[in-house]
Design brief:
The chain has 301 residues and is of the alpha/beta class. It is 43% helix and 16% strand. It has twelve helices and ten strands. Strands 1-10-9-8-5-4-3-2 form an eight-stranded parallel sheet. It has a two-stranded antiparallel ribbon with strand order 6-7. Helix 4 links the parallel strand 3 and strand 4. Helix 2 runs parallel beside helix 3, helix 7 packs parallel to helix 8 and helix 8 packs parallel to helix 9. The longest helix has 17 residues. The radius of gyration is 18 Å and the shape is globular. The termini are far apart. GO terms for molecular function: lyase activity.
């Protein structure tokens, strides 16, 4: 079996994981959570986002988080529009994430624009960021299924990826936003994308574990040549604009699976579990990852 020897995990818990959390987490606790995750070995992470506090109040402390957590690693900040990008640039970050939904309906319910309108708006913003030397990551939602439109056409995903590549993005994060994809679909889509995209464009898979398929989908994606995955400590997450989306695949479950397969991630599982244990009491629902549950159930001597 032809699998990579090393895989990069992008920790998305502090941003994607917490954005839909009902309890407002104090900035000091987010900063400590991020510090623990970095200590576990993550070198790429979504820290926060510059979005409207009215719509995503959990992210209203973005500037405070950035002031405390920036270092020389890849620290991504989500910035969905010109205003968000301006704030991100002013904050000193060098790695900016944008997003679009392949599904028109999802995109309209999310940001009140069609997919085409979003792409047209993003094009000059991305090109300007690239001229100024920023790393740009494009997050592509509803790449497999949409909660409103159903199955998404692979060719529509490919077209958006190629358009983003033409704009100059450095990375594409292709997401199963509502956790409906199966391993066959993942293998087929990522095989298609790997065939058509330039080898210099980083290609990342992003899975939600809504139906318990995320680890199987990661395994299928590995076979298609993917060696970058978004994961979230504790399986935190969901999407406020995607009915039915549960948490992201848990970082600790992915680290365990890959290590058992002899694939290196550079992440220390014990320290990662410390981070999950730290954030757990502050959440509105329990951490349900397999590795975390095992840790809780280990008899104390």
């Amino acid at each position: 079996m032809d699998l990579p020897e090393r895989v990069t995990l992008i920790e998305v818990g502090p941003r994607d994981g917490l954005q839909n959390e009902k309890n407002l987490i104090p900035a000091k606790n987010k900063i400590e959570f991020i510090s623990l995750l970095k200590n576990a070995g993550f070198q790429e992470m979504e820290l926060t986002s510059f979005v409207s506090p009215k719509w995503v109040p959990q992210m209203q402390d973005a500037s405070v988080i950035i002031d405390s957590c920036l270092d020389d690693q890849r620290n991504f900040v989500l910035a969905p529009n010109q205003k968000g990008i301006d704030l991100a640039v002013e904050s000193g970050v060098k790695h900016i994430a944008v997003f679009v939904g392949v599904s028109d309906t999802f995109n309209k319910k999310n940001i009140n624009k069609s997919t085409e309108e979003s792409m047209n708006e993003l094009r000059p913003l991305i090109q300007d960021l690239k001229r100024r030397g920023f790393f740009v990551r494009a997050c592509i939602s509803t790449s497999f299924y949409c909660p409103f439109e159903g199955k998404v056409d692979e060719q529509d995903v490919l077209k958006i990826c190629l358009d983003f590549e033409e704009m100059g993005v450095d990375e594409l994060s292709v997401a199963d936003t509502i956790g409906m994809a199966n391993p066959s679909e993942c293998f087929e889509l990522f095989t298609l994308l790997k065939h058509h995209l330039r080898g210099t464009t980083l290609l990342t898979a992003h899975f939600h574990d809504t139906r318990g398929m995320a680890l199987a989908n990661i395994f299928a994606s590995l076979q298609a040549g993917i060696d970058r995955f978004d994961t979230s400590a504790g399986g935190l997450g969901g999407c406020p604009f995607a009915p039915g989306a549960s948490g992201n695949v848990a970082s600790e479950d992915v680290v365990y699976m890959l290590s058992q397969m002899g694939i290196s991630t550079g992440i220390h599982l014990d320290k990662l579990l410390e981070a999950a244990a730290y954030i757990s009491p502050l959440l509105s629902k329990p951490v349900s990852s397999k590795q975390f549950q095992l840790l809780k159930n280990v008899p104390q001597h």
